[in-house]
Amino acid sequence: MANTQKVMTLEDTAKLIAKVHANATGGAKFEYDNAKGEYGNVAAYMAAHTDGRVYGVKFPKYTYSNTPTGVKTRDNANLAIEISTNDKAGRDDYAPLNAFRVWDVNATVDDDGVPHVTAIDGIDTRFKRDGSNGDVYVMTCPGYYKLDSTSTHNEFLYSDTQYDGYTPLPGVLLPDGSKRPCLLFAKYAASLDSQQRPLSVSGKEIDREFGSQNRAIDYALKKGKGYAGRCAGDNFYIQLMLMLKYATKNSDVLGGCWQYTPQTAVTKAETGVKRVIIATSSAGNFDIGSTINIGTDKERNNTGNYSAARARTILSKTNLDANNTALNLDGDAITTTTACFVSSMPWKTGATDKLLGTDGRPSAAFAANHQPIRLQGIELFNGIYETDADLIVNAVKESDDKGRLDIYRVFDITKASKTSTANYTKIGEFPARTKAIDNSWKQAEDFTLSNGVLIPTGIAATSTTGLCDGVYANPLTSQGLRQVRRFGGLWGGAACGAFAVYLSDGLAGRRWGVGGRLSALGRTKA
Q1: pLDDT at position 27, please?
Q2: At the top level of its lineage, which domain of life is listed (predicted)?
Q3: Fewer beta carbons within 10 angstroms: which end of the chain, N or C?
């Protein structure tokens, strides 16, 4: 006989509470406060829609099995997702679920780190991607996670409800311990305005001047104390969502612009045109939608590389004859000569704006490692490294054959430093180096979790085993404070991805293939 006196579990209770919240005044839908010029009930909305479900993914530890593939568990077990493109929407079981639901919004961050949402795409007409209504962020609910480990496996659990033993996602808590009403993630890598303030807007060149830890400190502060360059909370969310949704640690499942390096000579000079003519035999190397420079210098870091045109999007191609093809470009008319070269460059922001789904890449016709991707609505992997603002590494030479890489995190970005780790907490170490493997990429085997940061461990994996991504470091060759660069550049190859880190440059170092990203999570409780 059925037991009519069913004992309610903690999860049952959470779901019941969520239903009560959903019927509460002020939480049923987003409400705009005209007097304040923002949505005033974001926290109430997020609380009203919690459902208490728990989504898990379990991975074997590298010592047990070197596969990067995991198994979805709990409420995640039967969920599926497919890559979307500009032409096709893939299946996405996650899009309607509260723990994974995302909105594109315009928002600001005040000096205390509190987000203020001013427009929501699809809900009001104020929302703009081009910067005319401010920065573009991806908004989601505060989330909570737990990492269960055994001798053989790691299992991540994730929920919109904080159960016993669950930790708020990095960035949920403000320095005083209160919760942000929502989490905001910059939708795009950073461009700069005329006053060198970083932006998250569509249709812009990713600015190399924001591409260092030092510049992240200086330029973000121009917007206010609540802003930062990319932070640990931004990184952790991307990595966790990849693992949960795709049950893999290999971000190649989505793609990323890691192997897109073509350069070629201009074959016919023209004046006052919106195109550039190159050899037909080379035209296939350049993808429609991607970004190019045109100039007399093949070195991308030099101004001569864009002496004729800078950061132009290829709109289409026109075959002129058997030997010549025109790349048709956006922007103003240009003048080219046969002394010029065409160089591929990191994709401009907004490259994924036409995707017909939350996750994916623009085209099924082009190679996956030529293109940026979108994950949880966030555009990523445009062909640049993105520098952390709240993490730094101290490279230490311990002997002629051993160097270590100490990792430091500052939790409140207002205490970040260009010269010292005095206000930082040491949270771990990247894999040590010997002389034989100094100045090289080494594929990480696994990870440890410390203070909201997933730290790669081991050096014996490959691009298809373990963590699948690499760590580049040279503590025996060069010592001192180093910036933490994420993801990878145009020709980084198989070492690049969501877990990749490049650690050989000082805190002020910057270059054409390095950019940054705004963060709304810089002021965070330790």
Answers
A1: 85
A2: Bacteria
A3: N
